[in-house]
Amino acid sequence: MLLCLLYAKLGIFSSWATLVVPLLILGAAALAAGSVFGRGVQVSCGARFSPDADPRAVEDRERGRATDWTLLGWYVLAGVVLSAACFALFLDGPESFPQEYDNVHHLGVTLGFVQSGNWSPFAATLYASAADSAINPLPGVGFYPTVWNCLCALVVSALGVSTALAANVVNFVFVAVVFPSGMFLLMRTVFPKKTGIVAWGALCTLAFSAFPWMFLLFGPLYPNMVAFCLLPLALFSFMGLFSKGAGVAGRAAAALLFFLSMLCCAFAQPNAVFTAAVFLAPFCARQAYRAAGRFAVSPERRPLVQAACCLGACAAMAAVWYALYKAPFLQGVVSHSWPALFSRSEAAFDVLTLGFRAAGAQVALAVLVVAGVLYALVKREFLWVAAAYAIMALLYVFSVSSDGPLQHLLTGFWYTDSYRVAASAALFAIPLASMGLWAAFQGLRRLAARALPKVPPRKVGIGAACAVATAFVLANYYPGIALPVDGIKATAFEWTMSYMNRQNDAKEPHVYDADERAFVQEAMRILPEDALMINVPDDGTAFAYAADGARVYYRYLRTYGGSDETAESKLIRNGLYDISSNRDVRDAVERIGAEYLIVLDQGKSEQESPRLFTYENGRNWKGIDSVRDDTPGFEVVLSRDDMRLYRITAS
């Protein structure tokens, strides 16, 4: 991302070659320097990188390293298998994409990056090329987190594939590999002495409907998904700063890794930084409490001093939170409002059952989370994990059940969006569910050992593990993967998977269906490459640019009619049908260089042919929607059903 910013400043065209080659050279140089200057320096990793690890313990280093690699492989294997079953198999082809509001921007910005070579987060626009920038009906570009877009643009640039295919590749890699790998590091750090809990975490990492699956459904929130997938790495590296056996080199490595991961999260989606803050707040309070225990005070006063330090740390973190809430550069984020949807009791029940805005509940998973909380209450070294989840669950309750200043103060950093807060809560619940699943395994193993005293303990353990894993997969994952055609979706996971399937099913009614896409592609074949087509974006033509590269005039879906809209755009939207008799409209069309009009839903209502929700009965598009085959100033070039391509002949 820093290289993208530098290239934009220097006017260098970004592509896979100009980005990957320098990074490979830099990486090779760093590896060589580390090999020469880092000889004899030990940097702790895995369980030894944890604040709770015992630096005095004599550990077989090779065996510990082998255990870490085995567990990492188990996490990645589980991630790939579950992602294939819950995501890849639902795609109706490699170029399938959800036709939702946010995806117009996601895919469009990615294509703009590839076309313009400017991959800066300050150049995130659907009118990226010089020619398109000159005719942008809504001029103005600001900061937008674009890590996801850069990764997709890298795939498009390297392989020459479509933006939709690149999006599916990036999403799959992050959900199947990056997120599970990061969760392994975090779990190994949180539970350095509990390898069993770490192992069970592989099945819990992708078990929650709220994350990552809901982010692939609602919005979709791809940039936020990438940021949250990177988050475990940031949490792992921060906790490594407090490792008892890390040494100077280990702490320096942790500090650098934390800085870089936070930078990546900020450029992917800044609210991930605040999710990290909530997770780490109880951890920091615990560390302050522990540090105060080493003060030279009398045993009688030590508890009071520890409590004071803990409360002081909490007060300092709260003060920073409030200062950022009042910061001018964040007002556009924290002032964003989502209305209350539930009562307090309904929201609390939604948390308890892990529904998190999906229709249904995840009862089996909820039981495991509760069991994990109970285990944390008993094993107080993990109490901070339960506290972090409790805080985020409380924030979710406020985000979904209240309006006003308190909602903005507590959840404004996530746009007061309950889906994003729910995803944060789901992230925090993964260690708790893992503890619960491990406890279920231990309980079954002990019962089986008592019932079958003659069976070798190892076989009893394997049998208990297989039974618990099978029961959990069947209870949590299978209903979503099976997708019954009829009947009520009983679980939140099943509901989420069902809607993901519908989003990607070509047989379902879509805004930009297969026939419309074929019509657009045929129009592109017969028109000059740089031909500009006037359009109504809500009829699917917004995706014609984002997914197929069609040069349409209107690519954004909202904010038309405001002071930032160009005069030409206003004239065209409101009066294109009158182009033959209205000179102002003719001049506006001539100034933007448009020679064609493309219509995908002529004469049909929203009930007959779906449009995006921003269409609002066409109130912004009367001048274009009123054009028909006999309208003066237009000549039919291509016609099929309710789809038309007109040449603008008025002069």
Automatic annotation (TrEMBL):
**Is Lipid metabolism a UniProt keyword of this protein?**
no
> What residue intervals traverse the membrane?
12-33, 71-91, 146-165, 172-191, 197-218, 225-243, 255-283, 304-324, 354-375, 382-401, 421-440, 460-478
- Per the record, the coiled-coil ranges are none
Coiled coil is among the record's keywords: no
Q: Which domain of life is it from?
A: Bacteria
Q: What is this protein called?
A: Uncharacterized protein
Cite the entry's keywords alphabetically: Membrane, Transmembrane, Transmembrane helix
Q: Sorted alphabetically, which Pfam families does this protein's record hold?
A: DUF6541 (PF20176)
